[in-house]
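Subject: sequence -> structure tokens, single chain

Hey, anyone have a minute? Need the predicted structure for the following. Not urgent.
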Amino acid sequence: MKVIQACCVTVLLVSFALAADLTGHWSGQIEVTAPDGNVHTQSAFLDLKQEANKITGSGGSAEGAGLPLENVEFDGSKLSFSVSAPDGRTYKSTLALVAADSLEGKLDFTLEDGTAITGKLTLKREPPK
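Reply:
Had a minute. Here:
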């Protein structure tokens, strides 16, 4: 009986991973703890388009003003990418698909003084309009 249950769980997980399509508008927030201990929360947005395993899109903190995603990788459950800001700073993100419409993970970047910062990023897919 345990073997049958394990097989069913495996089939469901594989089906979920193969069915994952990230296309859509995602919104949420990033929470960053500054070096002084203060916690800052900021809006975050992703606009994604997926064709097979190729994902393109843009992301940023202001809706409609996203920067192109670079170095995008998606394995069915984990999405990683980077964004290059006009000031030369690079933001790197690794997100896990925790539900069909929910991404959670981190955003890493470095301040001008060389301080490395990691923020918690949470996004929900918005329903199509």
